[in-house]
Amino acid sequence: MALTGIQIFKLLPKTNCKECGVPTCLAFAMNLASGKAELDSCPYVSDEAKEQLAEASAPPIRPVALGKGVRKTTTGGETVLYRHEKTFFNPTVLAATVSSDIAAADLDKALKVYNAFQYERVGLNLRPELLVVKDAGKGAAAFASVAEKIAKESEFNLVLMTEDVEIMKAAVKVAGFKRPLLYAATAANIDAMGALAKENDLPIAVKADSVDALQPLTKKLTEMGLKDLVLDPGSREIKQVLEDQVAIRRAALKASNKALGFPTITFPCEMASNLDMETLIAGMLVAKYGGIVVMSDFTAESLFPLLLERLNIFTDPQRPMTVTEGIFEIGNPNENSPVLVTTNFALTYFIVSGEIEASKVPAWLLIKDSEGLSVLTAWAAGKFGGDDVGMFVKKSGIMDKVKHTELIIPGYAAAIAGDIEEELPGWTITVGPREAAHLAAFLKTK
Questions:
Q1: What's the rounded Cα separation, in Å, for the pair 346 and 7?
Q2: Which domains are present in the chain?
Q3: Engineered SS bond to 386: which of 107, 117, 193, 420, CB 3.0-4.6 Å?
């Protein structure tokens, strides 16, 4: 059972040191009990107390680490039903399916294509993380060969998909170093598959015919000492899969059902006859509440919108999306190219940079940290004032890159032009258009 705030308080050092970020140990205990704080925030809690507090501080849905290397990821760890309540933490993991009977040349071609699916946005590298090796009935050697090739020759991590324990053992032997997810333990093989996962310290998926049928299986695996579980209630019809995902999330968060307190794996690839429909179903499951979403294939027109949806949903709503402060080169600018400045609100950056690219006029774009606020909001909040912008231009290093002394500022920030001129004597401050849509024509006339 989870501990109450008062029970947690009794185990804390009661120093009221404020180093955890709140005024008192009692306030920290209440935050810990409600999932609004992390136990590691208290620097003085004893090891004995940590052990007793582990259950209270753990998220109701266990975070499960998947894979190794640059595409290592985590699923689960969620604490709320709705993003606006707090935030969603670990983005839905996207996977494509590779059959164990695929020819080596075809696998090489597929990996080359899949590795290229990486998109830069808001300073982040958006890409899928997993490949599911599906047993096609060609035996252990074929299954293990495909798993080994993916593990050793690509960045992708793995889901090993077979209910045959001997075939799974062969793949774990050659690809276990990548910490693959074993799919799946069922009522028929749970003892052997659970033992294999425990012996190799690997996460394991649990598959049943319903949400209710999952619970005795997860209890059995946890009693065996396994903690990193992923759930599949077996539903493959759109309405039922949505109901099951919501039921599992609600049971874990609202009813504190430990048997269902794990992330889920879903299979749009088994729910549609074409990739377009798979993508629609996957989009639903990214929002509600698939921990892993398995597609039959990755294509740019399918994957890119899913990655963007995932980015938007799993961005903290209390923190605006931002880009890094600094100088951005648009279209290979030179020492005579125009210099523009704007805020670091991600949407502002992408709209402005897009319009500059559309103008075909190479330019330097200075991005000033405004705590993620748009131009007008940042100016009103004192985060994009003339003095600050002038000092930023001095420190940015742009003066070493250009020969001219003209700075183009956003039209909505026209009021700060005089203050910038005082901070940058000798510079010409040009007020650009208010709307980014007019920027391309403005730059062409310049």
A1: 43
A2: 5-57 (1.10.15.40), 64-313 (3.20.20.20), 326-445 (3.40.50.11600)
A3: 420
